[in-house]
Amino acid sequence: MNPAIESYPLEQRPPSLPPIHSVKLTVNGTETELQIAPWTSLLDALREYMNLTGTKKGCDHGQCGACTVLVNGKRINSCLTLAIMQEDAEITTIEGLASTGGGLHPLQTSFIERDAFQCGYCTPGQICSAVGLMNEGKAKTTADIRELMSGNICRCGAYTNIVDAIEDVMNQKNA
Ligand code: FES
Ligand code: FES
């Protein structure tokens, strides 16, 4: 946070400074109270105020999917929602997908096995989106996976291996 903003007690804040609100977020099972401007996006709250930098900022306006997280099990672009709107939600980021014992999520393992990334910038969003896709249960075919993952852009063009990685986990689940 801007130290100039932080140093003012709320009651003494000059009108030129943005208002600060107390917002409680539950992220990866832990509740945290943040003092943030009401227009702070969930993405910025995660990255700038909670140090959860696994969630990436690509476009910051809903075009790339790099910022995908799970809210109550559903995938959303965290750049398109305000943190204050998610106070009663269970938010899961890439940092929270591994099991409590530290084992990787099956999709994380599969992305490694299938070599489904190059620079890795899009990968947290791809994996969170794939978890959401599987929760939705609508993808039945390879073409469905391609279509339903089309909101997640990969500038490195790792699409073929990303789809293979997701399909492997879906097949394991259905076996
Ligand atoms: S950073 Fe949110 S969709 Fe691109
Ligand atoms: S792995 Fe580089 S953008 Fe997807």
Describe, in plain words, how this protein is organized in 3D.
This protein has 175 residues and is of the alpha+beta class. It folds into two domains: 3-96, Beta-grasp domain (Ubiquitin-like (UB roll), Roll); 106-174, DNA polymerase, domain 1. Helix content is 33%, strand content 14%. The protein has six helices and five strands, in the order αββαβββαααα. The chain has helices at 3-6, 42-49, 106-113, 123-136, 142-148, 159-174; strands at 21-27, 30-36, 68-71, 74-77, 90-92. A five-stranded mixed beta sheet has the order 2-1-5-3-4, with helices on both faces. α3 packs across α6 (159-174). The longest helix has 16 residues, at 159-174. The chain is elongated, with a radius of gyration of 18 Å. Bound molecules: FE2/S2 (inorganic) cluster (2 copies). Pfam families: Fer2, Fer2_2.
Oligomer: single chain
Any idea what the CATH superfamily of the largest domain is called? Answer: Beta-grasp domain
**Terminal Cα separation, in Å?**
49 Å
CATH fold-level assignment of the largest domain: Ubiquitin-like (UB roll)
Q: Which architecture of the largest domain would the CATH scheme give at its second level?
A: Roll
How would you write the strand order of the largest sheet?
A: 2-1-5-3-4
State the CATH class of the largest domain.
Alpha Beta
Outline the biggest β-sheet: 5 strands, mixed
Order of H and E elements: HEEHEEEHHHH
Count of folded domains: 2
Give me the count of strands. 5
Strand content: 5-15%
Query: Whole-number radius of gyration?
Result: 18 Å
Organism: Spirosoma flavum
Domain 2Fe-2S ferredoxin-type: 21-97
InterPro entries: 2Fe-2S-bd, 2Fe-2S-bd_dom_sf, 2Fe-2S_ferredoxin-like_sf, 2Fe-2S_ferredoxin-type, 2Fe2S_fd_BS, Aldehyde_Oxdr_Iron-Sulfur, Beta-grasp_dom_sf
Protein name: (2Fe-2S)-binding protein
